[in-house]
Amino acid sequence: RVTAELVHEPKRVLDRLLAEGHKHEAVVLDQQIDVFSESFRRQHDVEIAFEEAARCRLVERAQTEKMSMADLTAHLFRDFHFGLNLVRKNSGQNKFTLPLSAVDAPDKFLSDLVVQSYYPARQTNEVG
């Protein structure tokens, strides 16, 4: 719809519309994180959730890297079903809340978590 504001200040209107679109995209991407978590639970019988900072980083990365959330999570967490099942086997833990470090360095996070499941006395506060 053409408004007086659009005619007189097209750049400002365009900038506002782009910002609104970016916010809407972020909401949709955040919802898709839950879709990934539910799919992961159904496929692997392991529950995962993400801390708020991790969710924000996933949305930020999906937008920056121009990837769908499904593609980004498939890429970042491609080995998590193997590692988390090892942890479950060793510790009985079946629910995992993933912190920001799991998004920033997923392989290191998973490796540390698996090692800690074999040597529980070495646990740190970051994993869990």
E-strand count: 2
Overall spatial form: elongated
Order of helices and strands: HHEHHHEHH
Residue share in β-strands: 5-15%
Low-pLDDT stretches: none
Cα Rg = 19 Å
- Portion in helices: over 70%
Reading side by side through the largest sheet, how are the strands ordered?
A: 1-2
How many angstroms does the end-to-end distance come to? 51 Å
Mean pLDDT metric: 88
What class do helices, strands and sheet pairing give?
Answer: mainly alpha
Q: Domain count, please report it.
A: 1
Biggest pleated sheet: 2 strands, parallel
The helix count comes to: 7
Describe this structure in words.
By secondary structure, the protein is mainly α. 71% of the residues lie in helices and 6% in strands. The chain has helices at residues 4-8, 10-44, 52-64, 69-76, 80-91, 100-104, 106-118, and strands at residues 47-50, 95-98. Strands 1-2 form a two-stranded parallel sheet. Helix 2 crosses helix 3 and helix 5 packs parallel to helix 7 (106-118). The protein is elongated, with a radius of gyration of 19 Å. The model has no long low-confidence stretch (mean pLDDT 88).
Keywords:
mainly alpha, 7 helices, 128 residues
